[in-house]
Amino acid sequence: MSNTAQPSRLPDISGPVPGTGSSALAGRLARVESRNVTFRSESFPIFWDRAQGSNVWDVDGNRYVDLTAGFGVAATGHAHPRVVAAIRRQSERLAHGMGDVHPPSAKVDLLERLAAVAPMAEPRSVLCTSGSEAVEVALKTVCLATGKPGVLAFTGAYHGLTLGALSVTDRSLFRGPFEAQLNPHVVRVDYPHPYRVPASLARTDRAGPNRRTATPEAAEEWLTNAALSAVEHALDEPAGASVGGIVLEPVQGRGGDVVPPAGFLSGLAEMCRSRGLLLILDEIYTGFGRTGAWFACEAEGVEPDLLCVGKAFSGAMPIAACVGRGEVMDAWPESQGEAMHTSTFLGHPIACAAASAAITVLEEEGLVQRAREVGEWWRQHLHSALHHDPSVGDVRGRGLLIALDLVSDRSTKRPDAGLGHQVVEACLRRGWIVLPSGPDGNVISFSPALNIERDLLEAATEVLAEVLAEARLRETDHTP
Asked: I want to staple 399 with a disulfide (CB 3.0 to 4.6 A). Which of 32, 129, 152, 371 is the partner?
């Protein structure tokens, strides 16, 4: 087996999407899975059969280009040969261990690799099986370290759907039915969205610049100051007395791929230091090269107290971690034979081996720097090719986390959710897998493999231009 990934190819669609095989599987799935899990319609889903690099094949033999890397997991590409080889070797040697009793050696190897790339001094970690669990560990650590049960979180946030993580996740769709079970000590503040400035922040400084005429630098500085002032105000309110930490995504993912203004993250870090709060950064989506740095917080030189990682951590297997500064993690007592937070699959040896291999691939193939360079090129290419389309309100991102914000009216920036779903479905029919994001589903989100070929990204841009033009033509002709 070669140690390097094979080049990916353009889509090859030989029949309807979904095909007969996917449609049959959708019917079978409906009989055995909770109806709330998988969305099904005449256009969705396709059922994956295999994947390699940036290509995915469905059960009907159609070949697609995956511009999501499977929710950002396959940063090194699907089935990277070195990751696959590590999984195979480990599965033949030891498939399961006793992670908190008699650990596999692979667990130690991985924790050392993680410590070497973590953006903090003397880190210590708790391995988990999902990003939600990593967030749960971080929230528990805040309570142990500060004695306070509360945290400050942000609108648009997505931190997972288990009950502790759900307490700091936003959106009534996720939270509404379970509100009574959630932590009542969560204080929420608007995330500084540069394209859609929240009304609450616009009101904080009536003397702020006219954002229509101000320079981008002045508008950015104003928004940073307004957002930090809103956080200060929330912490000074009576509810803020119970807050022991601040949790956020340094670049929001599912909330619409929102990059906050410069200085916001470093300002929060300074605020946490001055107030004795812990800074939790959820880099489950943005970590391991996605934004063109090992971790997005490095863009402003921020060292978090707690860092949650997952997704691209292994590139293939379910594994995550909460990483913290040593003195913070020492709030957890030394084990006397029972761990206060553990799970059966903690430090699963196959997942650990995959994660160690994925880190090696990121390092040796220079994928972090490549994400920075290729991401900047593609974002500019998308903007150049699509900015004339009136439905494209914003092209934004960092590294290879990029988004198109689709609007029905550029002057009002009104989200066009219907167009967002049309684009996702039209791209799928042409063999391109993309995702909607944002609270209105109007943002087309791209998080491809960090080693995706430029010619595929150029072809994707052409397809997006065609899809948007066809959607506009249908609207003009009033055709279905």
From this structure: 371
Q: Three-state SS for 273?
A: helix
Q: Do 262 and 448 form a contact (C-beta atoms < 8 A)?
A: no
Tell me the pLDDT tens digit for each residue of 42-63.
999 999 999 999 999 999 999 9
pLDDT tens per residue, range 339-364: 999 999 999 999 999 999 999 999 99
Peptide bond into 45 cis (omega under 30): yes
What is the Cα–Cα distance from 463 to 427, expressed in whole angstroms? 7
Q: What b/e readout covers 212-235, taking b as 16+ CB neighbours within 10 angstroms? A: eeeeeeebbbbbbbbbbebbeebb
Please report the beta strands in 336-434, taking only residues with DSSP state E, as ranges in sequence order: 392-398, 401-409, 414-415, 432-433
CB of 135 closer than 8 Å to CB of 107: no
Q: Which two tokens stand for residue 126?
A: 């708790």
At 141-155, the pLDDT tens digits run: 999 999 999 999 999
pTM: 0.96
